[in-house]
Amino acid sequence: MSRSGSFTRRALAAAHVGGAGEIEVLAYLRRDGAMSIAELARRRGIRHQSMSAIVATAYSRGLVAKLPDAGDARRVLIDLTKAGIELVDR
Questions:
Q1: Are the beta carbons of 75 and 55 closer than 8 angstroms?
Q2: How many other C-beta atoms can be found within 10 angstroms of the C-beta atom of residue 4?
Q3: CA-CA distance, 84 to 71, in Å (whole number)?
Q4: pLDDT value at residue 60
Q5: Through-space distance between the first and last CA atoms of the chain, rounded to whole angstroms
Q6: What is residue 1's predicted lDDT score, i.e. its pLDDT?
Q7: What confidence tens digit (pLDDT) does each residue in 11-68 have?
Q8: In this model, does residue 10 exceed pLDDT 90?
Q9: What is the average pLDDT across 62-84?
Q10: Distance CA 53, CA 76 (A)
Q11: Cα angle, residue 49 at apex, residues 13 and 37 outer, rounded to 5°
């Protein structure tokens, strides 16, 4: 893990964000931009259903938004909200 990744995890944990899964999701989205739940699940190496639960928690906290994919109407992209960006950038 890079030093910046370690710092991000510590900063988010100190801000009382959800568990490690939620912290990783926020960090992935900040670094790489909007992506689908399937892509987030692949990156973390977990099932789609497990990632859906993590995203649902972050969504309920107002940290992520669900956006339509302009290229594929069947897909939903997950991206950070302003609150999510501010939290990750602390």
A1: no
A2: 10
A3: 24
A4: 95
A5: 19
A6: 46
A7: 555 555 567 788 889 999 999 999 999 999 999 999 999 999 999 999 999 999 999 9
A8: no
A9: 95
A10: 15
A11: 70
Closest CA to 87 of 13, 1, 4, 6: 13
Question: CA 5 → CA 8, 59, 64, 73, 84, distances in Å?
Answer: 5, 22, 19, 33, 16
Whole-structure pTM value: 0.78
Q: Residue type for 49, please?
A: Q
- CB 81, CB 65: distance < 8 Å: yes
CA 14 from chain centre, in angstroms, equals 17
Distance CA 29, CA 46 (A): 16
Determine which helix (DSSP H) or strand (DSSP E) holds 74, and give its type and residue range: strand 72-80
In order of start, what are the domains of the chain with their CATH numbers? Answer: 3-88 (1.10.10.10)
Cα–Cα distance measured from residue 34 to residue 78, given in angstroms and rounded to the nearest whole number:
5
Specify the residue for token string 């900040």.
Answer: 30
Q: What's the Rg (C-alpha) of the chain?
A: 12
